[in-house]
Amino acid sequence: EVQLVESGGGLVQAGGSLRLSCAVSGATFEPHAIAWFRQAPGKERAGVSCINRSDGTTVHVDSVKGRFTISRDTKNTVYLEMNNLKPEDTAVYYCAADSMYYCSADDFPHVSASDFASWGQGTRVTVSS
């Protein structure tokens, strides 16, 4: 079973930046896709960015394109670099993994939380105006 541990959340002013990290571990489980979701108060959990571990391709939803970047290193950590943050980016951010899902530009904007099997505990991001 894969374990995911997020870190890097915090309070930042509008226009500022944060980098979230997701440490992925689990000796026998190789997730195919790693994604960042976010959940604002009173709203459903929604996909933000996704990366395929096989080829490194990435997808970002329209609301964060040009501001957020998902990446991975060689030590099983996935990052979400968030720039020019806006108050509407305030949410709890979750890292998720799945062995079957493939991040595509056509599918990921419509992703459901149920498409991903493994989840971290979340890290809170608050953007003040």
Uncertain segments of ≥5 residues (pLDDT<50)? none
String of helices and strands = EEEEEEEEEEE
* Outline type: globular
Classify the secondary structure makeup into a structural class: mainly beta
- Could you tell me the number of beta strands? 11
Task: Summarize the topology.
Layout: E1 3-7, E2 10-13, E3 18-25, E4 33-39, E5 46-52, E6 58-60, E7 68-72, E8 77-82, E9 91-98, E10 118-119, E11 123-128
Parallel strand pairs: 2-11
Antiparallel strand pairs: 1-3, 3-8, 4-5, 4-9, 5-6, 7-8, 9-10, 9-11
Quick structural overview:
With 129 residues, this protein is an all-beta fold.
What does this structure look like?
With 129 residues, the chain is mainly β. The chain contains no helices and eleven strands. The protein has strands at residues 3-7, 10-13, 18-25, 33-39, 46-52, 58-60, 68-72, 77-82, 91-98, 118-119, 123-128. Strands 2, 4, 5, 6, 9, 10 and 11 form a seven-stranded mixed β-sheet that branches. The radius of gyration is 14 Å and the shape is globular.
